[in-house]
Specification:
Elements (H helix, E strand, L loop, with lengths): L10 H7 L6 E3 L12 H8 L6 E6 L6 E5 L4 H5 L6 E5 L2 H4 L1 H4 L13 E9 L14 E7 L2 E6 L24 E5 L4 E4 L4 E6 L4 E8 L4 H15 L22 H15 L3 H12 L17 H9 L3 E4 L5 E4 L5 E6 L2 E6 L3 H9 L2 E3 H4 L6 H12 L3 E3 L3
Antiparallel strand pairs: 1-9, 2-3, 2-4, 4-5, 5-11, 6-9, 6-11, 7-8, 7-10, 12-16, 12-17, 13-14, 14-15
Helix pairs in contact: 6-8
């Protein structure tokens, strides 16, 4: 699947001029696109307890907007009004293989930045209200029609309708608007205010969202990682203490001592910081943890079975990334776990890190190498890989 940019634009042109800078309409972005799910299948997913879903209703109660959270029952949909409501289902790519193939259109962006594909169904005039997202998003019209209105003016952090479960803007004056038909796509950078309203029934939209951890989350995880991995046991000391005139004062000398101590404890070389980031950025959402297999395979059994399979597939719930090391060792990351690999096997690392489907003709030559067999077996037993017939 390929993303078609307008006016002969290349992926490099898009990244240079639009990515995280300004919106872009991509008419006919996905040629001959057919949504793998219909409204009934999407509603079925919303009834599953392990899948995040919600329904947003405009003027649905005492407040101008109401949100209901899944899992739902079939009867929940029969009680909905004829218009002005939207069903949203998160992480559909993790549960429906055909939806996950949409990600193949975004190979010009790093996998570790991708978050999920959310699919929404809206009745006529259905929307989730005017709002902003803190991350990049591509909005692909899957069926029906939706009118998008946007503005790029700064939105204050506190500028939301109070006492709502949704962060909806109280005022919205559009600067631009487009009517999207099936196959059309709209790219929005972070914090661009937007409001998409369905025109007619059977409006379905695929939202391809990108992971953007906030500063607090990153800093907290990095500090926790340093504490776990490199801060030694010990206590504050001040062997050079001198008599002081005011016993309640924290002196400059003491503060300098604290500064030196913290600087020494929090020092981290670039390679260690890179390895932390590989673990951090591949950590999945709490409800999408991959469980190890209850019945594991030995390396020999795995290899024999692998030789009979047309392909080895990545678990849809697994997040893969890799880093080229500087000391003869590279690192593969999957769901926060680190797997070292000799740097001379860089071609193998690229194969498993860049591809969600490993065809046998490409995988077969690597099965003769012990380090490759061992890593594949570990990934399989950990639940991150599966055979084509599973």
């Amino acid at each position: 699947m390929e993303l078609i940019f307008p006016d002969r634009m290349t992926a490099a042109d898009f990244l240079r001029s639009y990515w995280q800078k300004k919106p872009l309409l991509l008419p006919g972005a996905v040629r001959d696109f057919n949504c793998p799910l219909g409204p009934e299948e999407l509603a079925g997913l919303a009834c599953e307890p392990e899948i995040e879903s919600r329904i947003v209703i405009q003027n649905g109660g005492h407040r101008p907007w109401e949100v209901r959270y899944g899992p739902f029952k079939e009867a929940s949909f029969a009680r909905l009004p004829a218009s002005h409501w939207t069903l949203l289902v998160q992480d559909v790519d993790k549960h429906v293989d055909e939806v996950g193939t949409l990600l193949d259109a975004f190979t010009f962006l790093p996998d570790w930045r991708l978050d999920d594909i959310m699919i929404s169904y809206a009745a006529d005039q259905g929307s989730v209200g005017p709002h902003i997202d803190e991350y990049d998003v591509f909005l692909l019209q899957a069926s029906g029609r939706r009118r998008w209105r946007i503005h790029t003016r700064p939105v204050p952090e506190s500028d939301y309708i109070p006492e709502l479960q949704l962060r909806i803007l109280p005022e919205f004056e559009a600067q631009q608007e487009w009517l999207l038909e099936p196959g059309d796509m709209l790219y929005l950078p972070p914090r661009v205010a937007h409001w998409g309203i369905a025109e007619g029934d059977d409006c379905m939209t695929c939202s391809i969202g990108f992971r953007a951890p906030d500063y607090h989350e990153m800093a907290a995880d990095w500090c926790d990682d340093i504490i776990r991995r490199q801060v030694p046991e010990g206590r504050y000391t001040d062997g050079e203490l001198k008599p002081q005139s005011h016993r309640g004062e924290i002196t400059r000398e003491s503060l300098s001592n604290v500064d030196r101590l913290l600087e020494s404890l929090l020092q981290q070389d670039e390679a260690s910081r890179a390895r932390w980031f590989g673990r951090f950025i591949t950590e999945p959402k709490p409800h999408l943890q991959v469980s190890p297999r209850s019945e594991t395979l030995t390396e020999a059994d795995f290899t024999r079975r692998c030789m009979r399979q047309p392909a080895l597939l990545r678990n849809n719930w697994s997040r893969f990334a890799y880093i080229r090391g500087d000391s003869g060792v590279d690192y593969l990351y999957s769901n926060g776990q680190e797997y070292p690999l000799p740097a001379e096997l860089g071609g193998f690392l690229t194969l498993i890190g860049d591809h969600r489907r490993l065809a046998q003709d490409r995988l077969h030559p690597w099965l003769d190498i012990p380090d490759c067999r061992t890593l594949l077996t570990r990934l399989y037993n950990a639940g991150h890989l599966r055979f084509d017939d599973e």
